[in-house]
Amino acid sequence: MKDTLVLKTIQEKIKNLGSLPGCYLWKNQMGQVIYVGKALKLQSRVRSYLNPNQKDRKTRALFVELYDLDWIATRTEKEALLLEATLIKKYNPKFNVRLKDDKKYPFLCVSTSEDYPMVFLTRKVKDNGDRYFGPFTDVKAARDTLELIHRIFPIRKTKLKLPLPKPQRPCLNFHMGRCLGPCQGNITKETYSELVEEILRFLEGKKERLVADLKSAMVSASAKMEYERAGFLKQRIEKINQLREKQTVVSLDGGDEDILGISRRDDEGQIVILEVRGGRLEGKKSFPLSGLSFSDDEEAFTSFLRDYYLNVTLLPSIVFLPISAKGNYDVFLEAILEKFGTSIKLKFPEMGPKKSLLRLAEKNADLSLTERILATKLRDQTVAMKELQEKLNLPTLPRTIECYDISHFQGSSPVASGVMFVEGKPYKSGYRHYKMRGYEGINDPGMIHEVIARRLSHLVNEEEPLPDLIVIDGGLTQLSRAAEAANALDLGHIPMVGLAKKREEIYFPGEKHPYSFDIHSPMMRLLRNLRDEAHRFGVTFQRLQRKKKALKSILDDIPDIGASRRKSILTYFQSKKKVTDATRSELEKVQGIGPVLAEKIYTNIQNLKKIEPK
């Protein structure tokens, strides 16, 4: 239950809020901001969180951790929306949906504030009269677009303050026909401005209009016998048409649309935007999200629309969203209208071509999320191995790690399991099972000694490479016996540690006291994965061995089941598993087994299934 004093303190603060719009900040006991929200009426909105019997899973989870409250009043709910975005970026609260990357995405800038503009890549958007296009989530895509513009349009590429006091000799780009050479001073500002307008239409996605204008200019130049200019225009038309042929037509009405799809796994998510310009699919943008554990699609898209579209420089006419995201976006649309002087339409198609495009966006989001999760795991594995080398003082990076565990049921049917991780990932070909030869009953240290001795002897005899690290599932006693086995084979140089279950502590050979490390670190996560996998692998094998043994003894102990009938049962079912899964009627089909005997066998087998090993 929430501490009464905490609740009373928060309730006293709420009394001072009044009905103003603004943002509220929930904090935990350590003073960390764990959630930022906005409200039209702060007092009523914040008070709603103090009901412990919330239906909303996110609010219930937040209620458990909230300890203090802060707020910032604003004049309007729209201002609160913008402030909310700023506060989320500042505090990165765990319960808020947020863009995972806090980096600044690149934009393409057309420096229209200059007499002779150029196009370049930048991460800073300035209010200086220049035109910006983006953001681009993929830097390579931004650079490819810039390179394409430089190939198609002969705009200047060298940073100069034009016009120059004294004309200079043009660079190689001029002689290659890739620049009009404004540094020479022989091109008018008006002619150069026409080229800039072409680039702007290109970046705005108005390629059909651009091609039509270029064709008109080409015909006009030809009529005036300006054949060189007509030739330049023709080349531009051909290059733009080649590009358009590669772009899929997805909208016959030729509109500018964004199609949004989402994929989510636990706390992580990915939103993909398919950009349709002039009816053609021109590009894809992918954004990583976090904080999705307690949020539905409506909240995820509400946060994303605010963070993305209030920072773009060019709006589509329509944004298509999945039906699961349908909700109230009035404040967002009001903010868009105020900033851009125009608004966008939000649509939630349930069928037809746009629904198919939404599924395509969702599929792309799922692929992007899968790729990101795999890349993250790979980075974590690399970090984990480096941490192991550093924290355990290993001579080399532990690329190959083996872990051993003992499994038995109250001392019976003891087995050992060995699993191998290579480059931080399970390597199934290196997994091994061991039936104990020298020990019975409960003697985990002795069994660890046996299995390590057998494993290392095999590696030496077969001249196979030794592991970079051996992990023993257990404490000091088990680790000491494992070290004895290695020393007896003159292999005491192999790094070896013990991982105790209760406190997740690490033991080193020859040291009585364990060491504690951050249990959430990549290193400890890797060690726990190893230990848990060894335990799973061992328990599965031990259960199989015990059931085989128990089945044999059960068939032996059932009255009226002799060698002949036992053989008939196993012959009929072909495997012991099918015997244990058999029904009464199936058992009656075996020659020599009647209803009464079938009932005895079935009852004994069901009693066996109820027994589970530790």
TrEMBL record:
Residues 259-482 form the UvrC family homology region profile domain. It is found in: Cytoplasm. Its main location: cytoplasm. InterPro entries: GIY-YIG_endonuc, GIY-YIG_endonuc_sf, GIY-YIG_UvrC_Cho, Hlx-hairpin-Hlx_DNA-bd_motif, RuvA_2-like, UVR_dom, UVR_dom_sf, UvrABC_protein_C. Keywords: Cytoplasm, DNA damage, DNA excision, DNA repair, Excision nuclease, SOS response. It comes from the Bacteria. Residues 19-97 form the GIY-YIG domain. The UvrABC repair system catalyzes the recognition and processing of DNA lesions. UvrC both incises the 5' and 3' sides of the lesion. The N-terminal half is responsible for the 3' incision and the C-terminal half is responsible for the 5' incision. Interacts with UvrB in an incision complex. Belongs to the UvrC family. This is UvrABC system protein C. It comes from Leptospira bouyouniensis. The gene is uvrC.
